[in-house]
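Worked problem 6 (solution included).
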Amino acid sequence: MTASKVREQSDKRMAELDVERRGHERELKRLHARLRKLVGESVAAASDGRSATDQLADLQDRIRTLEQRMTAIREEVISFQREAVDERDLARALSVFDPVWESLSPREQSRIIRMLIERIGYDGRDGTVTVTFRSPGVKALCTEAEFRSRKEIE
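Solution. The predicted structure is:
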């Protein structure tokens, strides 16, 4: 359940990033075409050089902004891929979770809950509770639980 929810949230965000990326790619193509056209027009008609220069500067700023956002999208996608939760790792972590949980102080238990949960929402109309998990937190818990279980075996 937890792994599927984390994966579902991750997949949703990846889809949003993909839609945004494709939109930016289309806009970049349009801006580059406009830039080429404007450069051609400004060379052909040097009389109105100032407005063409202003337009060129504006287009280049917009292109730079979009390219920076595209870089941020690529980095976020890489981060999601790196932090993907493996169900086997999660199953191993959960199999040793109860004894580990019982051995933790309330402060450590609180830290783990904060590490795992990003947001809890309550819909009063439906009476439903939604929990949004932190994918990196689940991954960190898996790693920490595996480390603790190895340490106990040794």
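Discussion: Helices lie at 2-44, 49-82, 87-95, 97-103, 106-116, 135-153.
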